[in-house]
Amino acid sequence: MGKIKKGDIVGRKSYGKDILFKVEKILKRKNEEPIAILKGLIIRIEADATLDDLVVMETKQIQTNMRSLEDRLENKIKNCAVLSKQTASSFFKRGFLKRETRGEENGVILHLDGDKRYSDKSVRCYKQLNLNAIVRNVPENKQEYVVYDLLNRYKPDVLVITGHDGMIKNGTGFNDIYNYRNSKYFINTVKEAKKWVAKTGKDLVIFAGACQSYYEALVAAGANFASSPARVLIDFMDPLIVAEKVATTEDYKYITINDIAGELRDGTKGISGIGARGKRYTRKL
Q1: What angle do the packed helices 238-248 and 59-97 form, to 10 degrees?
Q2: I need a surface site. Which of 79, 121, 193, 210 has the fewest CB within 10 A?
Q3: Cα–Cα distance measured from residue 198 to residue 204, given in angstroms and rounded to the nearest whole number
Q4: Where does residue 199 rank: exposed (0-12), middle (13-18), buried (19+ CB within 10 A)?
Q5: Distances (CA, A) of 61 to 17, 41, 245, 248
Q6: Exposed, middle or buried: residue 198 (CB in 10 Å: 0-12, 13-18, 19+)?
Q7: What is the pLDDT of residues 147-156, one digit of tens each?
Q8: Domain residue extents for the chain
Q9: Does domain 70-284 sit in CATH 3.30.457.10?
Q10: What is this structure's pTM?
């Protein structure tokens, strides 16, 4: 087997190669074996491993995993398209009977994602769902410094703060912020967003977090929905599913996690929250 290098798609032998990772970078350590910083290929997790624990995955298995992701993307887009068509038909009939013409506008989404590949896929997904979404690839540790200005610029209805995360010591230290790789950055970004809300009075719906994120602290900081109550992994699609549901639900309806859980990778184990009003507005033309 060749030497592990940046960009390789690998699995961890100690975990039975259960998750595919991309090698983000390799850190050299004095008098110790280098470690690789890893980011999930289709799961929003960040981890590290010694090089001798890693194995480069076969092309066939990588293609199978990527095809699974693409299939889920396509199914989500198709399902949303059917629902959108049904909703449009319902509104058309009501407007015709009342002899009124009504225009509908979905909420505007601002999505900050720490992963460039996920950002690109999110753009494609939002576009095919015909959603008004602005996606920015911003590293997790820099999101708190740009979110206020981006909120000022785009004035969204829904804010997604995500990327990669993970517990350093899995299964312990649930209330130790330093046991999470990126939760502190997500928490700070939520707090900055709430400063903007306080100044503008905007009713902003916030999703925050990634795999195994510090759920309780994210909600305490002001997120409406967050991951991960049971410190489980979440799927690439999960934040998009929450954002889409909020943006396309009528503003007179209140959305709870139970309205979304069935579409998520692990339901309420992966994502929960206090809920929010929908952001789809209807106006007379």
Answers
A1: 10
A2: 79
A3: 10
A4: exposed
A5: 11, 12, 32, 36
A6: exposed
A7: 999 999 999 9
A8: 9-57, 70-284
A9: no
A10: 0.87
